[in-house]
Amino acid sequence: MVEDVTIGTLGEAAIPEAVALWEVCNLTRPWNDPHADALLALNGAASTILAARRGGVLAGTVMVGHDGHRGAVYYAGVLPALQNSGIGALLMAAAEQWLKDRGVPKLNVMVRTDNLGARGFYERLGYEPSEVIVISKRLDGR
Length: 142
Fold this sequence. Notes:
The chain is an alpha+beta fold. It is built from 4 helices and 5 strands, in the order βααβββαβα. A 5-stranded mixed β-sheet has the order 1-2-3-4-5, sandwiched between helices.
């Protein structure tokens, strides 16, 4: 099924399509503006959004970026009807390669603790839990 999938950079014109995919994949949260997130990633020097298309239809995305040492992914999702088809693995391999091409030695992935499906997906790709906690602070007043 992945033979007919192409992966490339998402164009700005496709942001609404990507946001619709993120919503159906339950990746959006009310406190984040996914359109603004997408624009920031596409216009950043150290980030992008990779898109998987199948038959011209957006099948999945992964937002990838780095701080020069560690990479991170966000909005990694595949249309529910195409999940478990290998598209997610292709997208993650593309994100890893994008980071390798830029000399980034490590990729961190944050997964909500209750998202067992995502945790299983990443574990099957060779990702392991790290002995760290994420501490955060909202800077946008929300």
